[in-house]
């Protein structure tokens, strides 16, 4: 246990980096990290470097794994399984095919064109941007393994339940006709060499960097603002334990934000540091990743209003239930 704690502190939490940045801020910039400005500078530099390092390492490893699971292979795996087993498999495959919410939409179109069950497709669509190996490792780094495991488990449960409900409602006729009528061509699975997989993983790291670097900087900046400049009393009044609508507010705040787990974590970390309850933080992160406005706009182009409204309602209600449940159990964390 002591060895795991040391590895977590040094390799995931990067306490050595925090100490180094503290020395930089205090000895070079001559600001105290115990004051607002110095604390903000320390938070911004430390979290930015930490997230970029973790993102590079984690995305490289996950992308290497993902090279074995292109969309064609995922479709083949999911194609022969229906019902609750299919929903579970769809949700689990979403964890090893880490697409952002908008990138998941073309995959959704491909799965629907391939005539995969709608419920299975939606289980994949929910879990892919919300829950993956990267989110687990990053959450472990920021909050510890207990909260990280909870986030992944409840995300998977929400994906399975959401897909199951959509399957039972028989909403296949709510997919736009051009998607259903699109021709589907089976493509051969590409056999990559070791070097090609390494090259693929490196390119994925570069591509994701280009997509999210600004979101990370914005997220860290907001986190630094919350952590050092917004009074504890203000945070508590808006989404603190004393506000019975905290989970609802956190869920609604997350919807218009377009970010992935990398951009969301610094904000969540700052809220956690201000004493915001775990359930409220989970609700915020889940709404950002699963209900981002850009992805909903894209989804509205391929499904009809009834299916879109059903999807939004299931995810929103699920997130709110998860938030209030874990706030009630906050004493365990």
TrEMBL record:
**Domain of life the protein comes from:** Bacteria
InterPro entries of this UniProt entry? DUF318 (IPR005524), UPF0718_permease (IPR053166)
A Pfam family hit:
ArsP_1
| A GO term from the CC aspect | plasma membrane
Q: Which residues cross the membrane?
A: 43-65, 86-109, 121-140, 147-166, 212-230, 242-259, 279-300, 307-326
Q: Nucleotide-binding among the record's keywords?
A: no
| Keywords of this entry | Cell membrane, Membrane, Transmembrane, Transmembrane helix
Places the protein is found:
Cell membrane
Membrane disposition = Multi-pass membrane protein
Q: Which family does it belong to?
A: Belongs to the UPF0718 family.
The name under which this protein is listed is Permease
